[in-house]
Design a protein that fits this description.
The protein has four helices and four strands. With 140 residues, it is an alpha/beta fold. It has one domain: 3-Layer(aba) Sandwich (Rossmann fold). The radius of gyration is 14 Å and the shape is globular.
């Protein structure tokens, strides 16, 4: 069965959240915060947004109960991504998941050195040299 981009992003976000949970790094009962940074408009990404939420629910993460999702969308204006990424960092989200754009991933990576950033490889295919190492998204 082929995994959708949204399901893959949900899986990556959950794996990043599992590490501090297992280590007891946060208070019991405190909801985890996921920051979503999108280069497109929320309406355009609607099926992906719902798939992401469903992926979270499938593994027991319910928005408003044990996870808070902070949504930020540049609505096609890539010049807004830097500010939106900074907002998510200021909100102290536990992980930033980028949706549908390499510029969003790069903006999130530039905004923080401490908050994990998760993205799907398929979004990077639109970049001529899509290697995460060549885009300085991972250390080699």
């Amino acid at each position: 069965m082929m995994m959708t981009r949204a399901a893959l992003a949900a899986t990556l976000a959950l794996s990043l959240l599992a590490t501090p949970l297992a280590a007891g790094a946060q208070q019991v009962g405190k909801p985890y915060r996921i920051g979503i940074l999108s280069g497109g408009s929320p309406d355009k990404n609607s099926p992906h947004i719902e798939a992401f939420r469903q992926g979270l629910r499938d593994v027991g993460w319910v928005e408003g109960r044990n996870v808070v999702i902070e949504w930020r969308s540049a609505e096609g204006r890539t010049d807004r991504l830097t500010g939106l990424a900074a907002e998510l960092v200021d909100l102290k989200v536990d992980v930033i998941v980028t949706a549908g754009s390499t510029p969003a991933t790069l903006a999130a990576k530039r905004a923080t050195t401490t908050t994990p950033v998760s993205w799907s490889r398929s979004e990077l295919l639109s970049t001529p040299d899509w290697s995460p190492a060549s885009l300085d998204l991972v250390a080699m």
